[in-house]
Every structure is written in structure tokens, then in C-alpha cells.
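Hi there, hope your week has been kind to you so far. For a while now I've been wondering how a particular protein folds. I'm sending you its amino acid sequence along with the C-alpha cells. Could you read through the record and tell me how the C-alpha cells relate to the sequence? Take your time with it, there's no hurry, and the full record follows here.
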Amino acid sequence: MSDDLVKRLREGDEFEQSMMAERAADRIEELEAELATCEKYRDAYDKMGRIGTEAYRDLEAKLAKAKIIIDAYGDDQSYIPKRVVGIYREVFPDGTDDE
């Protein structure tokens, strides 16, 4: 609502105040609708942020496990050492390590 609208609403005669009150009410409804939309977007972005953070943490954990597997291979990459088989299966659930 512009300052001019507020000023006329407060200082005008009864007829002008009545007309301005109607316009003010319409504008308030518009602003409330805009606010509701903004709140929906804010909530959606917050949720996306939480999902993104969780996904990032999951990836970090998988990368750490993959590093353990790589370190366990040493120079011979033709087998999976028994000590990392469980981690290997968790990182590569379909049984392959190439994508």
C-alpha cells in the first residue's frame, strides 16, 4: 500500500475514506496472497536444503567407504579383500563397480 493511499485513508472525508477502505482491503488481500505464496516457497526451499544436505552427507559417507575399498586393494585389483566385502556390497549394491 502506498503512503499516498494510507494518507488519503486517514485524512479524507467519509466518502473518500469509504472508497479508500475498499481499495485498502483489496490490497491487503493481494499482499496476504503474496505472503502465503512466499511462505510456501520458503518452506519448499528449506525442505530442499535439508534433502540436499542429507544427500551430500550420504555421498561423503559412500566416498569414505569407497576410499577404504581402494586402499584395501593395494597393487592387486583382481580381488576384493574379505575385510571390505561388506563395504563393497554397500557401495556397489548391484555387484558392479563400473557405471
Remarks:
- The CA atoms of residues 89 and 96 lie 9 Å apart.
- The chain has one domain: 3-91.
- The radius of gyration is 31 Å.
- Residues 14-73 form the longest helix (60 residues).
